[in-house]
Amino acid sequence: MDYARSLRIIPTPGCLWWHSAIGQLTGSSPSPTPTAPGFMVEFHIQPESEIPASAQLYNQIRFAIASRQFPPGHRLPSTRQLAMQTGLHRNTISKVYRQLEEAGVVDARAGAGIYVRAQGDEGGARVSRSPIMKDHPEAYKLVQKSLDDLLNQGCSLSQARELFLAEIDWRLRCSARVLVTAPSQDIGAGELMVRELQQALQIPVQLVPLEELSEILDQARGGTVVTSRYFIGEAEAIASPKSVRVIPIDIYDYHKELSLLKEVPKNSNIGVVSLSTGILRAAEVIIHSLRGDELLVMTAQTEDTYKLTALVRSSQTIVCFDQYSEEAVKGTIQKVRNDLIRAPRLVSCENYIGAKSISLLKRELGLE
């Protein structure tokens, strides 16, 4: 294999100098074959050799492919790059590439270049066996990479299979039961999460006060706990020792609604309504930080009829910080309409949970 003597591996900047084939032939300490990005193979042609230049290049490329210095899917250098490196004419290099294609080791892709072809069970044969692999090629590549990583870490195939199945089984058990938790003092926030999650996920969702979460998890075989980031610390402290995962959700940022409040005239009365006492407290503080004493802020929970009526009668603008409070406010406005000189301006937020959190939760629960 004289062609191997002229094949060197040269790391790109930041890597150590590497002589793969030469090291093996000279008896020096062998180094592992580089397969990760960051290495380029440099080919050398001996013009005085009896072996034709095209044969030298052909064999060096075959050696690079066989030793996985060029792994399946790797793009070979362009004819221009090889011409600059070896001094060969581009027509000669094109001829070599055609020979490699005829030998079935590379694929020429129009407009994209020459790529090392997957052999045997490296790609095409397995993909054709399952429609799922055809429908989700990127996901299939991710599975292959994950499996390779596990094997490189010393796992056997049986161990890797057990790890995958254990994780899948655990997630399926978790998906079977979704528990939303919030402190009893702000159980309204939990009610908001339950209503929106049931609508978005189309699965049963159970509301559990944070103070009762430990007892409920002791009775359950599995499940997923969902809560706002406001309560994530307490929820994890309870669920983690029981090997139950907790997924935090982000609440809506209320940017549009808060921007409207910046434009409200001074000395206006602002009403803030929500199912959640936590939202009411946070909204009151934020509005004060935006406008100081320029606005008079009144708050009321939806079920507090007395405070809600007083708020409707005295406010010029009412902000419903969840869509479920809007109906109660509208009903109250109708009841006291005869007492109002002018109906208050009503601003209603569409949701409590951020859209990205809904998408993430669907993926985590295997619902999309």
Short description:
By secondary structure, the chain is an alpha/beta fold.
The fraction of residues in strands falls at 15-25%
Total helix count?
Answer: 16
Query: What's the CATH topology label of the largest domain?
Result: Arc Repressor Mutant, subunit A
Tell me, what's the shape?
A: elongated
- H/E element sequence: EHEHHHEEHHHHEHEHEHEHEHEHEHEH
Question: What kind of oligomer do you see?
Answer: single chain
Write the layout of secondary structure elements.
Layout: E1 8-11, H1 20-26, E2 39-42, H2 53-66, H3 79-86, H4 90-102, E3 106-109, E4 113-116, H5 124-127, H6 131-135, H7 137-152, H8 157-175, E5 178-182, H9 187-201, E6 205-209, H10 213-219, E7 224-228, H11 232-239, E8 245-249, H12 255-262, E9 269-274, H13 277-291, E10 296-301, H14 305-314, E11 317-320, H15 323-335, E12 345-348, H16 355-364
Parallel strand pairs: 5-6, 5-7, 7-8, 9-10, 9-11, 11-12
Antiparallel strand pairs: 1-2, 3-4
Helix pairs in contact: 2-4, 3-4
3D architecture notes:
The protein is an alpha/beta fold and 368 residues long. The protein folds into four domains: 2-117, Arc Repressor Mutant, subunit A (Orthogonal Bundle); 120-154; 172-252 and 357-364, 3-Layer(aba) Sandwich (Rossmann fold); 255-348, Response regulator (Rossmann fold), CATH 3.40.50.2300. It is 47% helix and 15% strand. It is built from 16 helices and twelve strands. It has helices spanning 20-26, 53-66, 79-86, 90-102, 124-127, 131-135, 137-152, 157-175, 187-201, 213-219, 232-239, 255-262, 277-291, 305-314, 323-335, 355-364, and strands spanning 8-11, 39-42, 106-109, 113-116, 178-182, 205-209, 224-228, 245-249, 269-274, 296-301, 317-320, 345-348. The strands form four sheets. It has a four-stranded parallel beta sheet with strand order 6-5-7-8, sandwiched between helices. Strands 10-9-11-12 form a four-stranded parallel beta sheet, sandwiched between helices. Strands 1-2 form a two-stranded antiparallel sheet. Helix 2 (53-66) packs across helix 4 (90-102). The two termini are 53 Å apart. The model is unreliable at 1-39 and 121-128 (pLDDT under 50).
